[in-house]
Design a protein that fits this description.
- This protein has helices at residues 59-62, 70-79, 91-104, 107-123, 128-149, 153-164; strands at residues 14-17, 21-33, 36-45, 50-55, 65-66.
- With 166 residues, it is α+β, with helices and mostly antiparallel strands.
- The protein has 2 domains: 14-66, Thrombin, subunit H, CATH 2.40.10; 70-164, CarD-like, C-terminal domain (Methane Monooxygenase Hydroxylase, Chain G, domain 1), CATH 1.20.58.
């Protein structure tokens, strides 16, 4: 970088943008904003086929993080096969709880949402909002684990389904 500013992420690195999915750093670029030079990550999000510009100094606040290690990905896969903790029967309460977990965005938080909503769906069909939340969480989980383990997403989807059914 011209001004010697170091960045947390490198060009071409895969990162996780909470509730948006796995993205790739396409560019690290300086732009003028409010008469100030600001450094930005240009991140391409494959799942939504979208490119976003994120100020480097906002990364922590947004929860953008590196992809998990193979070990953490494997741990998340194991975790979803364990029994889900009790969840509120009031769907609005449950929805907010799960939404908050997704926004935190750690792989274990995402796995917890997938596990609890899947378990709940076995008892009773999920309301539309919760079903969308489940699908979104499941996608995020599959994506990140597939990248972390360097395996096809379809294969990871099957493993997740099998682990949820244990």
């Amino acid at each position: 970088m011209e001004n010697g500013q170091t960045t947390m992420f490198q060009l071409d690195q895969r990162v996780v943008y909470p509730s948006q999915g796995v993205g790739r750093i396409m560019e690290i670029r300086e732009k003028m904003f409010n008469n100030q030079k600001t450094l930005y990550y240009i991140i391409y999000l494959e799942f939504s086929d979208m490119t976003v510009m994120v100020p480097v100094d906002k990364v922590d606040a947004l929860g953008i993080r590196p992809l998990v290690s193979r070990e953490e990905a494997a741990k998340a896969l194991d975790y979803i096969s364990e029994a889900a903790s009790t969840i509120p029967s009031d769907w609005k309460l449950r929805y907010q709880m799960n939404l908050d977990l997704l926004k935190k965005g750690s792989i274990m938080d995402i796995a917890a949402v997938v596990r609890s909503l899947y378990t709940r769906s076995k008892v009773k069909e999920l309301p539309i909002l919760e079903r969308k939340l489940y699908e979104s969480a499941l996608n995020l989980l599959q994506d990140e684990i597939a990248y972390a383990l360097e395996r096809p997403k379809e294969e990871i989807a099957k493993i997740i389904k099998a682990n949820l059914d244990k």
